[in-house]
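Whether sequence alone determines local backbone shape is best considered at the level of individual chains. For completeness, the protein is quoted in full, as a sequence line and a line of structure tokens:
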Amino acid sequence: MMLVVGGTGELGGQVVRGLVGRGVDVRCLVRTRTEIPGVEVVVGDLTNPPSLRTACAGVETVVATATAIGRLLSGVPGPSISETDERGMLALVDAAEEAGVRRFVYLSYAGVDAGLGVPIEHAKLAVEDRLRRSALRRVVVRPDAFQEIHLGPLGRFDLAGGKVGVIGNGNAKHRWVSTADVAALVVAVAVESDPPELIEFGGPEALSRNEAIAFAEDLLQRKLKVQRLPAPVARLAIRLLRRRNEAVASVIGISLLFSLQDVPWTDEPLRSRAISPRPATSFLRDQAGRA
């Protein structure tokens, strides 16, 4: 039995469908009762430790993709990043260890150790450290930035509106990766016999945000309005917002990564598992076609 925490989210939903497609018995932790085809559902929440102990009973592997950041950015009230991504996820690790779970697959993000001091960074590193000290077989998955978020309107890359935001200089090359490819990798490491403890990876193309803008402008045959926020101003905003608005401070910090340094990771973890990663330029072509 595998427990998926975050299975009703975009990424987690794809993970659930991938595991079910492989014939895996799947249980999902959900906040309100809902029907998920082929899946056992347990009602609970990361902020409710007793429900986590119930969810982990009889489970061999936990797959944790849940995060509060998307909900908070959408303006939906509820527990904070500190309450959910940090204390809640730490409680899940405790519950898994107490229940005798063997493997814990945890979704972090590439560049989480950059030292930017944002809430999501603090939460992810705390959970990674707790897993390192646990009796669980840890598998930490660190994907680069998701194409659907950071090269779409939510990530201030709005081709239809003709506006793009850049935090810092935007010169560092990243390997924007598709959500589907991340989900496929999570499914693979959840079932393979001897997965690595840490996997940091991205898509097939090393592309800076400035290069992505230039590529999009070439596709659209027009200039985009580029709004730039200098790195010192971004760092100041992080300090001012990290207690008042954890989600926005975290997004600014993650976006600042695109200006720090070229990434060392590659798409090898995907290709070695027969996952053909989608190029970021292919995603941008689709976005430009709809703009």
The mean pLDDT is 95.
